[in-house]
Design goal:
Methane Monooxygenase Hydroxylase, Chain G, domain 1, 7-stranded mixed β-sheet, 9 helices, transmembrane, CorA_TM1_TM2, magnesium ion transmembrane transporter activity, cobalt ion transmembrane transporter activity
Length: 342
């Protein structure tokens, strides 16, 4: 017999994280999450490869900084105050394109807890450098992954920025497949017996819908970001094509998430319909029982009156009343069966 306790909404996220091997503080998928080292983090491109540097390169570098470090080191840059303002909001995506630089933020939902945790990432991109604002170890892990997976020829700063964006969604389809597996399993259970489902099934479905809706907003905001980045002059034709590829991936993820959101709504509708059918059957049975006993109630009420009936003194009146009650009951049952009421 199948066990249904894993559908309890209270432990759903824990089981999801175990299924996809995620950490609560991880925004994207890593084979092994590395702790962020202390001190300044610099990356540069050498021999068409991204490498980590111990010191700040003269030009063409990527740097990960905290909010305080950015304010102290780069507070005099154009629009640095605007970047810090949106970064501190930590709730919405924003991007501003200028003649020789791009500044913005995007909010990454933690894939282990989509609704509970988000990480805000800020960026200041020019033709020669990328400044990344991140208080966590997420971007450090992204860049470390990139140093181990060198896939792009003619790598430059703008390529690195697009690769960072691409890493944000590189394994998201796996997460959506897990949602799909859970919804498929719930659909199978619905086809068996609705009474075996957990009592909090509706809240479980609503939790899924909220998580999927949050992911839909995330993917749509990435589409908006790409549209804005395409207007910048700091990206060449090759990078623009990679941006378009990234935009296509985000669009497909949005479409898949929207489909799962609709499937979750359909499951809720089916569940509610089954509950209504079950309640209707119960009410139908109660109505039939009430109807069967209504003539008997009439007889009981009739002979329960404090009035002397003519047949009271007849010795066969009692068994005749019993037989009449049984006959009325049998006739009613036969009529109900003929009408297919049960």
């Amino acid at each position: 017999m199948k066990q249904k306790d894993h559908l309890d909404s209270d432990d759903f996220m824990q089981k999801m994280k175990r299924t996809v091997a995620l950490r609560e503080d991880c925004g994207i998928f890593f084979e092994q999450e590395l702790p962020r080292p202390a001190g300044e983090l610099f990356y540069a491109i050498e021999d068409q490869k991204l490498v980590r540097k111990d010191e700040k390169p003269a030009c063409g570098y990527i740097q990960i900084v905290s909010k305080a470090e950015f304010a102290q080191q780069y507070g005099m840059l154009d629009e640095s105050g605007l970047l810090l303002y949106h970064y501190e909001e930590n709730s919405i995506d924003n991007i501003d394109v200028f003649e020789d630089h791009v500044v913005g933020t995007f909010v990454v939902p933690m894939k282990g807890s989509v609704l509970e945790s988000k990480v805000s990432v800020g960026f200041y991109v020019t033709e020669s450098r990328i400044l990344l604002l991140d208080e966590t170890s997420m971007l450090y892990n992204v860049l470390e992954r990139m140093t181990k997976r060198q896939k792009i020829r003619d790598l430059d700063i703008s390529h690195v920025f697009v690769r960072i964006l691409d890493c944000m969604i590189s394994d998201d389809m796996l997460l959506l497949q897990k949602y799909s597996m859970v919804l498929d399993q719930m659909e199978d259970y619905l086809e068996e017996n609705v009474s075996d489902l957990p009592h909090n099934f509706t809240s479980f479905i609503m939790q899924n819908k909220k998580e999927l809706r949050a992911l839909m907003v995330y993917y749509r905001s990435l589409n908006y970001m790409v549209d804005e980045l395409a207007e910048s002059d700091i990206f060449d034709g090759i990078v623009e094509r990679r941006l378009q590829s990234f935009d296509n991936k985000a669009t497909k993820l949005y479409a898949e998430t929207a489909s799962l959101h609709e499937a979750a709504q359909q499951l809720r509708d089916v569940y509610q319909a089954k509950i209504d059918i079950r309640q209707n059957k119960v009410m139908s049975i109660l109505t039939i029982v009430t109807t069967i006993f209504m003539p008997l109630t009439l007889i009981v009420g009739w002979y329960g009156m404090n009035v002397k009936m003519p047949e009271v003194g007849w010795p066969y009146s009692y068994p005749i009343i019993i037989l009449a009650s049984i006959a009325v009951t049998i006739i009613e049952i036969l009529i109900f069966k003929k009408k297919k009421w049960f």
